[in-house]
Amino acid sequence: MWRLISGRVLAMIPLIIIATAAAFFMLQLSDVDPAVVKLGESATEEQYAAVRADLGTDRPAIVQYVSWAGGAIRGDFGESWQRPVEVSTLISQRMPATLSLTLGAVLVTILIGLPLGTAAGVRAGSGAESAITAAASVGQAVPAFCAALLLAAYVAVPYGIFPATGFVGPTTSVTDWLRSITLPAIALGIGGAAAAARQTRAAVASTLRQPHVRTAVSIGYGRRSVLRSDVLRNAAIPVVTVLGVQVSLLLGGSLIVEQVFAIPGLGSLAFSSILQNDLPVVLGIVAVTAVMVSIVQLLLDIVYGLLDPRVRVR
Fold first, then answer.
1. At a CB cut-off of 8 Å and minimum separation 6, what does 226 contact?
2. Per-residue model confidence as pLDDT tens digits over 28-81
C-alpha cells in the first residue's frame, strides 16, 4: 500500500506543474497590464515601469513562472493586483465555504445516489428500477444552476427554513452552518447523485448476474448476506470511479451555485477576480484547485487499493 501511495504522490507533481503552467501561460496571452490595473490609466510611463519592475512582469514569461512556482511551493501566490492583500490570505478566507459546499454535495451524492442505485440494481427489470432510472436521468439533465434557482425561489424564500443567501462558518454556529449549506449542497449534488445511482445500478445488476453469485444464492446463502459480502464490494470499484470524477466536477460546479446563493467561496472569488483582471488571484485559485483534485485522486487510488488487492502490487 505504501508503494502505491508513494507512486501516486510522485505522479501528482507533474500534473500540478502542467495544470499551473498551462494556466499561467494562457493568462500571459491576455493584454491586461498589471501596472494599469493597479494605478489606473492616468499614471505616467515611469510609474507604470516602476510597478512592472516591482511585480516582475517585465521579465520573460518563463522566468516569471519559475519565480511564481518557487513562491507557490511555500504557499506564497503573490499579492492581489486589486487590493493590498496576499492571494494566499484571500484563498484561505474563502476556502471554508467551498470545502463545506463540496463536502455537503459529496454527502448528497453518496446518501442519495448509492442507496437508490443499489435498490434499482437489486430489482432490475421491475417498475421500481424503471422509476429510479427515470429519476436519475432527470437529475442528470437538470443543470446545477437551475436546481439552485428553483431551490432558492421555491424552498428558501417561501418557507424561510433555509437561507436564500449567505454562509455561516461552523465555528460561528454549527446549526446555522448546516442550514446555510443544505440547499446549495443539494443543488450541487443532484447531478452527482443521479450519476452515482445509474452507475451503482449497472454495477450491482451486472455483479448479481455473475456465476459465483448465483451459485452462492443457490446453495443456501441468504441474498442479503451475498449482497453485503460480495456484490457491493465488487460493484464498489466502478462506483468509486464515478464518485472521484464527481468530486472534481463539484469543485468546478461550485462557481455558479456560489453565485446563486451569494456564498463567499473560491468560485465567487474567481468570478470577481476574472471580471477585475486580478490574474494573480485567478492563478492562485487554479493552483489550489489542482492540488485539491490531485488529493482527491490520491484518496481514490487508496480506496481502490483497499477494495482490490491487485492494485497494490502494480
1. 213, 216, 217
2. 777 777 888 777 777 788 888 888 888 888 888 899 899 888 888 888 888 888
Task: Return d(Cα 143, Cα 140) in angstroms, integer.
Answer: 7
First to last CA, the chain: 10
| Strand partners of residue 86 | 79
Distance CA 43, CA 33 (A): 13
pTM beyond 0.90: the answer is no
Sequence-ordered alpha helix ranges (H) in 74-173 = 87-108, 114-122, 127-141, 144-151, 157-159
**Where do the H-state alpha helices sit in the chain?**
2-28, 34-39, 45-55, 61-73, 87-108, 114-122, 127-141, 144-151, 157-159, 174-208, 211-218, 223-226, 232-260, 266-275, 279-307
Domains of the chain: 1-82+276-314 (no CATH), 94-265 (1.10.3720.10)
Banded pLDDT at 87 (limits 50, 70, 90): very high
Q: What is the dihedral of CA 301, 240, 283, 10, to 10 degrees?
A: 10
How many Cβ atoms are within 10 Å of 51's Cβ, its own excluded? Answer: 19
Please answer whether residues 120 and 135 qualify as being in contact, where contact means their C-beta atoms are separated by less than 8 angstroms: no
**Structural contact between residues 196 and 133, judged by C-beta atoms closer than 8 angstroms:** no
Of the candidates 252, 264, 237, the residue with the CA atom closest to the CA atom of residue 191: 252
- The yes-or-no verdict on residue 308 having pLDDT over 90 is no
